[in-house]
Design a protein that fits this description.
It holds the Pfam family GerE. With about 400 residues, this protein is of the alpha+beta class. The chain has 3 domains: about 170 residues, Beta-Lactamase (2-Layer Sandwich), CATH 3.30.450.80; about 100 residues, Beta-Lactamase, CATH 3.30.450.20; about 70 residues, Arc Repressor Mutant, subunit A (Orthogonal Bundle), CATH 1.10.10. It has 15 helices and 14 strands. The strands form 4 sheets. Strands 4-3-7-6-5 form a 5-stranded antiparallel sheet, with helices on both faces. Strands 9-8-14-13-12 form a 5-stranded antiparallel sheet, with helices on both faces. A hairpin with a 4-residue loop joins strand 3 and strand 4. Helix 11 packs across helix 12. The longest helix is centred in the middle third of the chain and has 27 residues. The N and C termini lie far apart (about 70 Å).
Length: about 400
């Protein structure tokens, strides 16, 4: 028996006892299948989904994924996930939960290539005994019984974490299962590193720049890591004139306002995740500072090859003091004059509560107008409606 101490973990004084790495029989066959499936993901067009499917089946995992995280604050900036209900990733990215997520914090503190779990095979307690109130509420809702994960890489304060939650009906992850995960760990690290390199190198930025500059309206394309692959001349000119946004040395779109930068990055990450799922759902972020306010409409880009997925940003300057063309709105969005007035406010970045306050109506009435606009125009989400309103009025 070889004792493996994990410094930096929340229970760093506790030694984890793992047997000498060796597998036989069905476990060895399953391990070989997992490894081959993992590396095959580098050649397929489905990201890491085939590996997730195999991992989920073998380890009876409920949900999880590979998540890229920023630090200070801890935020999800890209990722591939499995097992979560529709809309969860979008909610998670745009919430404050990643900053207080005990699992992410725990796995970031581990040495690279070392899996750990919350319960470590202890059947006398549950994961609910360990989690904080917010995480516990989610764990109770989905029936989570344990969570295992590893730090894949860490560089310049940013981290990549692999995590896999498990349903309580299967009990905690056993020592033998953690052993198998630790044998997979270096392969996961290699595959992720290679996959990220493919994302960085397969975009032909020179040809992309030429194509974007043929379009006169301001456009920015982000790769699947949320970094700017290319911005055309019109986008650079608009950002310079506005003074409210720029592209930093790390290739990230940023605002002069820290909170606005966070909103931009969350929206870009949301669209990146949606691109992996093949969902064309737009997001719109309004900058509120600078000489010329800008609306940023973000749309997932879905390519034949997953490594070429990304996000397209259309930048629109607008003047909130100008009255929108009400007749144009009524004609384009098949709405009443009252609904057109609500639509005009949505196109300026106002929320339902803002609309209610501005129009001196109840929040219920404001929401009813918005629901009517959605139904009449075939949109499921308010974010999609707002994006189309901004494009129509630009």
């Amino acid at each position: 028996m070889t004792n493996v101490s994990i410094p930096g973990s929340p229970d760093s004084n506790t030694e984890l006892a793992f047997p000498f790495p060796s597998l036989g029989g069905e476990d060895l066959q399953a391990y070989n299948t997992l490894v081959s499936t993992l590396y095959r993901c580098l050649h397929d067009n489905t990201g890491f989904q085939p590996f997730f499917d195999a991992f989920k089946h073998h380890f009876k995992a409920l949900q999880g994924g590979i998540l890229g995280l920023s630090s200070n604050p801890q935020r999800m900036v890209y990722g591939w996930t499995f097992g979560y209900p529709e809309g969860f990733e979008e909610w998670y990215i745009n919430s404050d939960l990643p900053e207080r997520d005990e699992a992410l914090t725990r796995y970031r503190q581990l040495p690279p290539r070392q899996f750990d779990s919350f319960l470590r095979g202890d059947t006398s307690r549950t994961i609910l005994d360990i989690l904080g109130p917010e995480s516990r509420a989610w764990a109770e809702q989905v029936g989570m019984g344990d969570s295992a994960g590893m730090l894949v890489t860490q560089e310049n304060g940013n981290s990549v974490v692999f995590m896999a939650n498990r349903h309580k009906e299967f009990g905690p992850y056993t020592d033998n299962e953690l052993l198998q995960m630790n044998l997979l760990a270096p392969h996961i690290e290699n595959a992720v590193a290679l996959h990220l390199k493919l994302y960085e190198t397969r975009s032909d930025n020179e040809n992309l720049a030429t194509a974007l500059n043929h379009v006169k309206k301001p456009l920015i394309v982000f790769n699947a890591l949320g970094n700017v692959a290319q911005a055309n001349d019109a986008a650079h000119a608009l950002m310079e004139n506005s003074g409210s946004m720029s592209i930093n040395d790390s290739g990230r779109l940023q605002s002069t306002d820290r909170q606005m930068t966070r909103k931009l990055q969350d929206a870009i990450t949301t669209c990146t995740v949606l691109s992996h799922k093949g969902i064309l759902s737009s997001q719109t972020v309004f900058t509120s500072r600078g000489q010329e306010p800008i609306a940023v409409c973000l749309t997932p880009l879905i390519a034949d090859s997953a490594e070429n997925n990304g996000v397209l940003a259309e930048l629109f300057s607008f003047d909130p003091s100008l009255e929108p063309d009400q007749e144009r709105l009524q004609a384009l969005f098949h709405c009443t004059p009252t609904e057109a007035a609500v639509a005009a406010l949505l196109a300026q970045g106002l929320s339902a509560s803002d609309v209610a306050e501005r129009k001196q109506i109840s929040i219920h009435t404001a929401r009813q107008h918005i629901k009517s606009l959605l139904a009449k125009n075939g949109y499921r989400k308010q974010t999609e409606l707002v994006s189309m309103l901004v494009r129509a009025l630009a």
